[in-house]
Amino acid sequence: MPKFAVIVFPGTNCDFETVEAIKKAGGEAERVWYKSSLKDFDGVVLPGGFSYADYLRAGAISARAEIMEEVKALVSEGKPVLGICNGFQILTESGLLPGALRPNKVPRFLCKWVYLRVNDAQTAFTQFYKEGEVIRMPIAHAEGNYYTDSPKVRIVFQYSNEKGNVTEDANPNGSLLNIAGVSNEKGNVLGMMPHPERASDKWLGSEDGLKVFKSMVEYAKR
Ligand SMILES: NC(=O)CC[C@H](N)C(=O)O
């Protein structure tokens, strides 16, 4: 069974839920304090929260922690690395994903349910979805306004309406092309602002996020 490290920085707050979601998806998972080592793990999840209180820019300080060098090594070995919300911010700040997450267009914290269109079902985290599938998950962020000028990016999730139309109305934060999640060219690093772990059981209001973890667990078995 593949084993995942869920890295905990000072201020991380979605680590327990993320561990539960990975276990439900059939993997093993452990919370790993950022001063530890990543030996013996088949993949990594950087969960959400407010690491270092979003000081300077969200994710900027965590991105410079020593453990991120180990994360980079795992990425080059082809292992799956998922960043959720603050984790996505850490991935862009560390250069593991292109682009940046700027303050929301309306500069305040947004907490609400959104619809997403799956644009790329070929990554390590989306192989169990269908291209064009519409899924529902919560967002909770102040700095989720994604921008990039890099062509080396795969658009994985886009904010859409219920029918899957990628419209301006459906864009909560001003992201370029309604981008909610991107991966690297190889498809083994995914960053996403919506929270799949908060949509991983019916009693949470949706289990549409579970396939992110199921896909990742399956990919890590290879
Ligand atoms: N839920 C989160 O991970 C929040 C991320 C970050 N602290 C922000 O507000 O943008």
Describe the structure.
The chain is α/β, with parallel strands linked by helices and 222 residues long. The protein has helices at 15-24, 67-76, 86-93, 210-221, and strands at residues 3-8, 28-33, 43-46, 81-84, 100-102, 110-118, 134-141, 145-147, 154-160, 179-183, 189-192. The strands form 2 sheets. The protein has a 9-stranded mixed β-sheet with strand order 2-1-3-4-11-10-9-6-7, with helices on both faces. Strands 5-8 form a two-stranded antiparallel ribbon. A hairpin with a 5-residue loop joins strand 10 and strand 11 (189-192). The structure holds glutamine. Glutamine (GLN) binds next to strand 7.
Low-confidence stretches: none
What's the Cα radius of gyration? 15 Å
> What is the CA–CA distance across the termini?
11 Å
By secondary-structure content and strand pairing, the structural class works out as: alpha/beta
Overall residue-averaged pLDDT value: 98
- Helicity level: 10-25%
Please count the beta strands (DSSP E, at least 2 residues each).
Answer: 11
Unique bound compounds: glutamine
| Count of helix runs | 4
Which term fits the overall shape?
A: globular
Spatial strand arrangement across the major sheet: 2-1-3-4-11-10-9-6-7
Q: Give the H and E element order.
A: EHEEHEHEEEEEEEH
Strand content: 25-35%
Largest sheet: 9 strands, mixed
GO molecular function: ATP binding; glutaminase activity; phosphoribosylformylglycinamidine synthase activity
Pathway: Purine metabolism; IMP biosynthesis via de novo pathway; 5-amino-1-(5-phospho-D-ribosyl)imidazole from N(2)-formyl-N(1)-(5-phospho-D-ribosyl)glycinamide: step 1/2
EC number: 6.3.5.3, 3.5.1.2
Subcellular location: Cytoplasm
